[in-house]
Specification:
The protein is mainly alpha-helical. It is built from 6 helices and 3 strands.
Length: 171
């Protein structure tokens, strides 16, 4: 039986795995169950910050957290990791298929007998052609130039910090 995950579940998993610290916590807890204190000692951040990372992983169901006396133990869930891998594999298969079809289209020889007129739409019988001399040139709107991106990138110049002088207010 194939287990379907909701979009919210998938979002939680990828959000959890988007952070390097959380990926490292998953890696460490796949090897062996570790206490939150042991995990916190491995990172240059507060105990509370590591606890928040673990909470995100628990919410995504990538790790489980259990109490043993006063110690909280964290263990990665291999089945959840396998589900994430399976999902990524399905996206990989989808995109590989699309790239393969694109490669096949690009590698096809152009048909030498094809008429160039096929790519140009035929004029409609309902709309008569107007002579070029009577066609008005396109007009530019006043804000067309403002919305057109520049052709060359604008170099970034940092603005120097200028301390402001204290000016007494006038009453």
């Amino acid at each position: 039986m194939v287990e379907q995950q909701s979009d919210a579940d998938i979002d939680r998993v990828f959000h959890a795995l988007a952070d390097a610290t959380r990926r490292d916590i998953v890696r460490r807890t796949l090897v062996s169950e570790q206490s939150v204190t042991q995990l916190a000692a491995a990172y240059a951040m507060s105990f509370a910050a590591v606890s928040k990372h673990i909470a995100v992983l628990v919410e995504a169901r990538l790790v489980t957290k259990r109490a043993e006396g006063r110690v909280r133990l964290v263990q990665a869930d291999p089945t959840a990791i396998a589900r994430a891998q399976k999902l990524l594999r399905s996206y990989e298969d989808l995109w590989r298929g699309r790239v393969d079809r694109l490669d096949a289209l690009l590698s096809e020889e152009p048909d030498a007998t094809a008429s160039p007129a096929r790519s140009v739409p035929a004029p409609s019988a309902a709309a008569p052609e107007t002579p070029a001399s009577t066609t008005a040139p396109p007009t530019k709107s006043p804000d067309a130039a403002a919305s057109t991106p520049p052709t060359e990138p604008i170099p970034h110049r940092p603005i120097p910090h200028r301390p402001t002088a204290h000016r007494p207010t006038e009453n």
